[in-house]
Model the fold of this input.
Amino acid sequence: MTLSRRAFVGRAALLAAAALAPLPRAAARAGLVTAGAQAAPDALVLETLDGVVAYVVPGDDRYSTAQGVSRAQPGGVAARGGEGLRVTLAVAGPGTVDATVAVLNGVARAVDPGVDARAATLGFAAPFAALPFAAKADVFARLSRSAEDAFRRLGAILPAIAAFVSYSEYGAFEGGEPVGWQLTGYEGVADGRDELRGYYGGRRRARAKRA
Amino acid sequence: MRDVIVVGAGGGGAVVAKELAARGLDVLVLEAGPRFADPEHDWTHFSQDATNPITGYFRWGPADRSQPPYARELNPSTTVVQQVAGVGGTTLHYSANCPRAMPGAFQGYRGRHRDAHDTRHLFPLAYRDLIPYYEWVEHTLPVQTAAMGTKEEVFFRGARRAGLPVNRFKDITRDSFRPQENAILQPAGTAGRSGERAGATFPRARGCTFCGHCLEGCFEPLGAPRNLKAKRSTDNSYIPMALTADRWQRGGRAAELIAGAFVERVELSSSGAAAGVTWRHPAGGELVAEPARVVVLAAGAIESPRLWLNSGLPNPNGWVGRGLTNHFEDLALGLMPFETGFSKGPTSAARADFPGRGSVQNAGLPPADIAALLAAGNPAPRGSTRRGRSRGRVVGRDLIRLLTSVDRLMGVVVLTDDDVDPRNRVSLARGLPPDAHGRVPRIDIPARGRTARSIRNRRFLLRQAAEILERAGAVAIHVNDGPPILGHIHSTLRMGQRAGDSVLDRHGEARFVERLFVADNSALANALGGPNPTLTTQALATRVAERVLGRYFDGEPWVTRETPTSSLDDRVTLAVQERGL
Done:
């Protein structure tokens, strides 16, 4: 089966994304975004989201190297997971991408007040991308404990979306084997498989029994 | 004026439509989601295309996928809702598991474990009264004893070694394991014996091809007529029958189905009885007033109470939307030192049942879906861990390690017999704005604050799941301990023994609104004791159809007097082909 569903792939999975719609207002209340501000630069957005994807599915990319947890094989970044996250969050509503980026980088600074300097040294525009692995975990832990409902939702949803996109076919719709299939040894989609093993005890029917 | 309007073409609505169309009534089915008229062309087996809850073809949203999905207000906000809009409803992505309910969930049960169930919220009928309707649906779908793939062999080995006896019957009377009774045509010919496309093509292949893509919608075998597709989701079974009732039943009249039609209000007569609906036309978006003699709500356990509340229908005892049960699901995942075929075959073909506590069943998923589940686990799990055991969220190297060989995993889903609790409910949102169809639903169901019995049952079932996995050979076991999952959603417009805590009488008719019936999972009185709800909902929907015909159209009951026509009947197939369905 050919991978040819690019038109739909641009809006990848987001678990109940509509509930992230309150996120921009929550980010504004926290002083992390300003109404009417310009959209975050592409580099800041992609680096932040690739930083999330590397956290969930590390690989042989610079984000994984920077966090101190990497692997010799491709991971979520190679699966174009950051881009997948961006197009996903864009569906959730206006301002959700920028709010997500602002929240992650804002909490990153709270976890590590010196992270901006580290980011500059590593060549990242996004502080979150410069955090060590344990510090990224701390960011998500803080989100999960937040008094702000929208932040708790973000902390729960974002890793799941990152995992879904990274292990899906998203990054391979223009060719190649999906990274997720390589990581899992998945044989790929099929119309049928040689997997029938017969019937338990040879039984083809269950009888009725009066309870 | 229509005889009957059915709101929703899912698991229950399609049943009512087919039964009453076969009796010659003028039936209109209004489905909010799209109709997938050509699944082999419209669907793929890819997770991104199908199981995306925002833009996937199985999302809860409008037919136009360039539009956002419909919103829900969730408490806690981490709740995961797994529903589908479209002709076939949530049966489009279901696993087609069709166990009967536990007999102890019904009034009058005198067997063992009778006191172990949710005895304050029993069904207002006896289990034996429902059996003829179970048999009718089981013949119609049809329901068949499932064959094994490798993962079922592994599950059965574990269950046997754990000391569980095998259940050879349809009915559940003791702790036991068995093959699933599935609404899936079992494999014949080359089906299940070939990885080649030709080997999955009708008529060489008949029934389930073991493709492993139940979740993405069943269009196998390739080239089979719609009513001969393997999974008996209602788009493949009851809907084709409803649309061709004039061809296979003397006196039958084909139902009319309109997809993309969102019902926004139930209208009442001056006497307070249901008198029709107002719905929004998919083409122009204009509102249409459609009168009817009877209205049947079958929009699902979230949308049916939403429609009730948005219509301002009577709710004198406050139970509309209340008593939500969801089987308090969890997942135990085992890592095996051998191949399990986790990603192959039907999603689930093996189960174990524990009367008074609930059920467990095996499960297999594609990589993206299992990865998302693991990453959505509890970030702060409680409970001790030891060597080879883990809980909660999995990310990073741990996630990659766990998923290194997807076909060495073994999933066991826990389906708890959870209590009806009025605090768990569907109501109308307070914080989200209305959408184009009115105030959006709010769902309150806690991750942890459940009744003591519900918690006790879930812990028991997790121990059973772990033992089955260990006995099957697991070298590591992970428990997801995730957010509330609403996959099985029931009892939000429950029928009950008492008028004080139920919305429907024992026939499925609204206590407060004559000529209004409910025929989806919201009508269930409780969590059924744990088993998957669809078969019971479909049996009750059949019973609702009899009641509608008898009370309002002077008809006679038929279930105990006639032999059902199977959805596989040649007359149905011929009509499906001739009408291009």
Summary: The longest strand of chain B covers residues 287-297. DSSP finds 13 helices and 23 strands in chain B. Chain B touches chain A through 106 residues (CB under 8 Å).
